[in-house]
Amino acid sequence: MQFIDTHCHLNLDQFNDDIDDVLIRASENNITKIIIPSIDIPSLEKSIKIAEKYSQVFAAIGIHPNDGNSWDRNTINKLRTFSQHPKVVAIGEIGLDYYWDECPRDKQQMIFEEQLMLAEESHLPVIIHSRNSLSEVMITLNKWKSNFSKTQMDPGKKLGVLHAFEGDFESAQTANSLGFLIGIGGPVTYKNSLDKHEIAKRIDLEWIVLETDAPFLSPMPFRGKRNEPMNIKLVGERIAQIRNIQLKLVSHITTKNANTLFALE
Fold it and tell me: Which regions in the chain score pLDDT beneath 50?
């Protein structure tokens, strides 16, 4: 069995002292690939350096909505240059965050749209962040995809993943119809995360990828402790339990989904 952690912040300070050990534990638990999303220019530079050092690690580049105030007129050109790096497999994490509201909403929207256009230009999938903003994110993604009708893009192409999905089953179906997979992580193991349980049970496995969001959102029984990639197996086990299927099926299909979406093979 193999697993892919499609969202792990190895570029944050929490991993400065023991990243080698973290990756050894990941390998021992059959996590074969890890994608590091970025939040700003310094973090994406660190992501790429880590990806260059470790063959199983890949980078996503982007400006997180909570870091939107760092955006200036040169940022998109920097991202465009970084997008050509061979270890960069996605634009992300990008989107809208109306929970913290650390960046004005109109600026968040502008930055989101600029990076979506970069993803289209670069032929890269996107990793989408939304918090208290799902309806606005979906409107933006729908508008973005509608522009593809003017291009030669395959209408059935999968465009990215909605990370740490905050919606219900019906909104997950809408996301799928737009070409977006659902990222499922540690919260699916929480007793009261009923919407996440329903999504894990009812969404076709072809539309699911696994993620830790490490060092955040540790699954049970490690909730409250630092998360790390080896815990992705616990997420897979919970999905298998909810669906009453074998773990190896969850492993096989979600790994295939991630490999295909991010062109990892």
Answer: none
